[in-house]
Design goal:
Blueprint (H helix, E strand, L loop, with lengths): L28 E15 L4 E10 L2 E8 L5 H10 L9 E2 L9 E11 L2 E10 L9 H23 L15 E2 L6
Parallel strand pairs: 4-7
Antiparallel strand pairs: 1-2, 1-5, 2-3, 5-6
Amino acid sequence: MAEKVSAQALDFSNVKERGPINPIHQAEGDYRATVKSVQDITMGETKRPAWMFIITVGKGNYPYRCGFNENELWKIRNLFVACGIAVPKKRLQVNPSKIVGRDLGVSLEDHEYDGKVSSQIAATFPVTELEGADDEPVDEEDGEGEPEAEEEPEEEAAPAAADELPDEEDELEALDIEDL
């Protein structure tokens, strides 16, 4: 016989609906994807600001978190390039909403959490690379990605101090996709 359990008064007024993330397990490999949305978030124990892009791959929606630290900016740059937006190596005002709705290629890999296997986005690349031979996208991505990761910190290192950053907005260029 079942034990009697007491009823409780619960306040559901601030409970959020299920979020847009649904990282279902798919076979590891390269896929066509679409940037579904972006939102401001905080990451890690230090609660540093970041963007979280929701990227749709097949029937799954995967989070792709991008921080603003100097050693994390390569991820944002690669994502924009994967979406067809050229990003020059200089200080820019970047609007993350500009890539919402755009297609790109992603590499999914297996990820285990709490004993469950799901997929996660391991890399982003232009969707045009999906049409090549299987080994071509990896070679092209490695050839382009590694030098950028090594060069960016050297170029970005000079204005590291806040008092050295440009104060005037006309010194910052807005990342504009209207010309594409």
